[in-house]
Amino acid sequence: MIDHIIDLLVILVIAYLSKMFWVFSNKKRAPQIKLLFRTISLFIILHLILFPLIYVLLIHKSTSSIKIDENIIKYEREIKLEDAIKVKNEIDTRSDSLKERHVVKNILAYNHDYLDTVSWENIDDNHLIFLDTILIKGYTQYKCIPGDQVQKVITFYNRFGKKIIEVNTLSGQEYLSNILFDYLGELDKEKNEIKGKIDIIVANKFWSYRQILPYTLNILFTDNFNPQSRTANIIYFIHNILVVGFLLTFIINLFQYYLLTDK
Predict the structure, then answer these.
(1) Residue 90 lies in a domain
(2) For 222-235, what is the mean pLDDT?
(3) Based on CB atoms within 10 Å of each CB, which residue in 123, 182, 188, 197 is the most buried?
(4) Model's pTM, two decimal places?
């Protein structure tokens, strides 16, 4: 989710840069410079936004559609895998080393009927609930930043007051038993999500807009990025024509402007 937000911010910044060139073109009197600025504006949109996004879609549809240098794939894959494995280890530490799942399941097994009657209001604001062998305390962690989610924080203690575990859940349920069941579901969901993410990375379908952009900037003079499928070849050809056309237009307009000002 964070990667998509950052990609969107990068695209918005580039789009804003394109808009500025278009605005500047309206302030220029010389037709050659006006055309030049508008050409740059359109080129930014097509070369830096549209075509990289198309390449990402092609790769996600089929990794064989575009051949990328193996060293580049290895480098980008290692970065993604490192982050994903770090998250996986954190999840495994919480659910295995701390035995959260085991503790919560035992609490539900031995106290299910009682927990069915305990609403969140009974333990919110750090109120304590005494069971046969454990104590339970909870509080609501409200939003720190806009868009953040409200969490329920539940702490379990043994009968001597020693903390056993603390769990965080996004559950919106009212009764404690349902909240704990939701928490167990969240553990499974986290594991499945990170496993799916690692599978995508291993399959080389991890490319995002920000990752593909640097390798498409120098589209004319690189062997690191080669189309393989028919669709990819057509798009790649159009992209090259666009770049060549922009360079020719840029040179011709500057030359014309130089001749006119020289006269």
Answers:
(1) no
(2) 88
(3) 123
(4) 0.64
